[in-house]
Design goal:
With 577 residues, this protein is α+β, with helices and mostly antiparallel strands. 49% of the residues lie in helices and 12% in strands. It is built from 24 helices and 14 strands.
């Protein structure tokens, strides 16, 4: 891969910095979508109810794009309706491009690190990507070097040279954090680098509860930022604005927002952040992201936490709501320039000062021709990734994902000889045994993993697998006991709640099962199967009108749930309509 940044000047700077105006962005993208013989876009619609008057759009994938991505929709935000629409459409193009790339075997070569050592990303970057500075990283190196992975051409933007990148490795640890699309390569890269930096500082601040300065909102000078601040104030929504930049050299603004008039009945505390080279635009991104996640603070919608956790109460984040010092927005670093090339170069330089390299993979779809990248910064943190991650852990994860059970057992046994006391090796061994329905042996391995004192977030996952094993054996009381322990460790895990609901149903405890499925639907109201499961338990409790309502909701969301359809038909004499 060869790549060179080009001079590209901004053509739009109203609420975000872009090469083209939102209207031009939408028109160009629609034209290109129309020229491709694939059903990629179904429609894009505005979904906010107007209370905040900050527009939020959703773009819905067409059937061909859904088959490629496994995703139904993307959300978009902006201070103006056209920018929010452009954002939703470009998000769709970004993910469609990425997953099309990932599914194209012609974009990869398959082999081991040993085969590609001369051109491959160095092993030091592999260890840095999971923050593994232990002796175990060197001990397990031989296993990593023999791991069969998909590799693709990349470009080290920091060093200006081509490099072969283990795509499977980075997707296992980063998922699609760092994917971006833009009107030009430079615009897309500013977005991709900014997203990873945003995830990095959010992870560090939330995990380590780092005190950060509060930002005086009134210090903002951007007219659209000030306008949005007035909209929040007019609706009684309280904002806590923070400097999340840390020492990264690229400005990040964090915002925590809640509505005392509607929380917690019909709204949540929303906590998010925005990163761009310009602090005013970073603030703008955070404010529009709040609107996207909050559902106008009156709709009862619930958002899925990503870069930052979702606080249940203000008392959970005292270092944010009561900062020890205050600064103006202008105190943040400002890397902005009219030339997007210069902004990219300044971001790369700021990261180089932290000994972080920027590596990019070109994921542009050959027919769509919208510039798109998968940007990697080995050493960046992500909240979703286990804090205890290591080379060995992710090698084991990939072995289980990509190898046959027989091959996996052999590699895990080899690893166990090198790393005899790790908890994750019996854990992954247990997951393989569960997958081939050797449940008793799986239980033995999973208990061994628990005995080795894993961190709390991984203990919850182990209890989830144990619950599945006991459930499969019909040992529902044992399943309930271990699942309750897992839920204590991580109350928000919907997989554990689902298993608990099923096991409670099987033991005849329909009241508790109802509470389990209601808790799931509170987090994910669009889960068709959980509406159906809730309805079954309501029916057993003779709460027929409620059962009918949830069976109907389940079938509206997924008409293919046959047991829900049969149950609803059996209840038809009870329906007034």
């Amino acid at each position: 891969m060869n790549f060179a940044l080009k001079d590209t000047f901004k053509g739009y700077t109203l609420d975000q910095d872009k090469a083209l105006t939102p209207a031009e962005t939408v028109d160009r993208l629609l034209e290109r979508l129309g020229a491709i013989d694939l059903d990629i876009l179904e429609k894009a619609v505005r979904i906010d109810n107007g209370r905040l008057d900050i527009p939020v759009f959703i773009s819905f994938y067409g059937k061909d794009a859904r088959a490629i991505t496994g995703i139904r929709k993307q959300m978009g935000k902006g201070a103006t309706p056209k920018q929010a629409e452009a954002s939703a459409l470009m998000e769709l193009a970004e993910r469609f491009s990425f997953f099309s790339f990932s599914n194209d075997p012609n974009r990869f070569v398959t082999g081991t690190f040993r085969q590609f050592t001369e051109n491959a990303l160095p092993y030091s970057a592999i260890a840095r990507s999971v923050h593994d500075e232990t002796d175990d990283a060197e001990r397990i190196r031989s296993v990593f070097e023999s791991l069969v992975l998909r590799w693709t051409e990349g470009w080290n933007l920091s060093e200006g040279r081509g490099i072969l990148v283990p795509f499977d490795w980075f997707y296992a640890i980063n998922a699609f954090n760092g994917t971006s699309a833009g009107n030009c390569a430079e615009e897309a890269l500013v977005q991709g680098i900014s997203e990873i930096v945003e995830r990095h500082v959010c992870s560090l601040i939330s995990r380590n509860r780092i005190p950060v300065p509060g930002i005086r909102p009134e210090s903002a000078t951007d007219p659209l930022v000030r306008e949005m601040l007035c909209k929040y104030e007019r609706n009684g929504i309280i904002l806590h604005v923070s400097d999340f930049t840390l020492d990264m050299g690229i400005p990040t603004v964090g915002v925590l927002a809640f509505d005392p008039a509607t929380f917690p009945k019909s709204s949540e505390i929303v906590w998010t952040a925005g990163t761009t080279p310009n602090p005013e635009k970073a603030f703008s991104r955070a404010l529009t992201e709040i609107a996207q996640l909050a559902g106008d603070f009156n709709s009862g919608s619930r958002y899925e936490a990503s870069g930052l956790p979702k606080p249940g109460a203000l008392e959970d984040v005292p270092f944010i709501v009561s900062p020890d010092r205050w600064i103006d927005l202008q105190a943040l670093p400002n890397l902005s320039d009219d030339n997007l090339r210069i902004e990219v170069e300044r971001c790369v330089s700021a990261l180089a000062a932290k000994n972080l390299e920027v590596i990019l993979i070109d994921t542009m779809h050959p027919d769509l021709r919208i510039p798109a990248f998968y940007t990697l910064i080995p050493g960046a943190h992500f909240r979703e990734r286990a804090a205890s991650g290591s080379v060995g852990m992710f090698v084991a994860k990939l072995v289980c994902q990509n190898y046959s059970p027989k091959q996996s057992f052999a590699v895990l046994q080899q690893m166990a000889a090198l790393l005899p006391n790790t908890y994750y090796l019996p854990f992954y061994t247990g997951t393989i045994l569960f997958g081939i329905e050797q449940h008793e042996q799986a239980i033995t391995q999973l208990h061994l993993a628990l005995d080795r004192n894993p961190p709390a977030e991984d203990r919850a996952a182990i209890h989830s697998y144990l619950g599945q094993c006991y459930k499969s054996l019909g040992k529902y009381h044992e399943a309930i006991e271990t699942l309750e322990k897992g839920l204590t460790l991580d109350p928000g895990r919907t997989d554990i709640l689902n298993l608990l609901g099923f096991c409670r149903f099987k033991t005849g405890d329909h009241e508790t099962a109802v509470r389990c499925f209601e808790a799931i639907l509170k987090e994910d109201p669009g889960s068709a199967i959980d509406h159906a499961n809730l309805a079954v338990n309501l029916q057993r409790l003779d709460r027929i009108p409620e059962a009918i309502r949830h069976f109907k909701l389940a079938l509206r969301l997924d008409p293919g749930i046959d047991f829900a359809r049969s149950a609803l038909e059996s209840l038809s004499p009870h329906q007034s309509d």
